[in-house]
Amino acid sequence: MDVIPLSQGELRWVFPEVAEPDAVRDALSEADAQVTALARHLGAPAGRAGEGLAFHRVEGFVLAGVFGSTEAEGVGFSASLSFPRRCPWEPRWGPPWEVEAEIAVQCGQVAECGGHTLAERARTFSTPIGAARGLVEATVWLLERGTTEPLLSWRAREDARCSGVTG
Questions:
Q1: Is residue 167 pLDDT above 60, yes or no?
Q2: H/E/C letters for each residue in the chain?
Q3: Cα separation of 29 and 52, whole Å?
Q4: 0.70 exceeded by the pTM?
């Protein structure tokens, strides 16, 4: 998968008919700054591109979204703005656009367990500017949670969720 930093990507990959490109770009830049600030606070890299937000492309196909994440000590913080598709090759574009944010922890109890989502939020939006502003709200939420709650508290919640018993 190719990861294209926000600054090098094209808004029309996500919003083919964006009417307010400058306002959308400004909001995405603000969300990018939130992810970068969280990564800096955690002393961790921001996303796969080493920057806050990025577009993802698989063999020339843009996955039509903007994604950002950071992880430290097995606690992952991620945010995305995309439109729901039944499969990656579906030609449909938004609206709606969906914004998701989550805090997940790698499981330390069971090898087969991938991990646990401990906090999440998701909303849908009918306009590009609404979706971009929604991503700002989601990344602000991640930054607040990631800077006010110690990583050890997230790990303790994970330990309490996974008893080590597999289904």
A1: no
A2: CEEEEHHHCCHHHCCCCCCCHHHHHHHHHHHHHHHHHHHHHHCCCECCCCCCEEEEEECCEEEEEEEEEEEECCEEEEEEEECCCCCCCCCCCCCCEEEEEEEEECCCCCCCCCCEEEEEEEEEECCHHHHHHHHHHHHHHHHHHHHHCCHHHHHHHHHHHCCCCCC
A3: 9
A4: yes
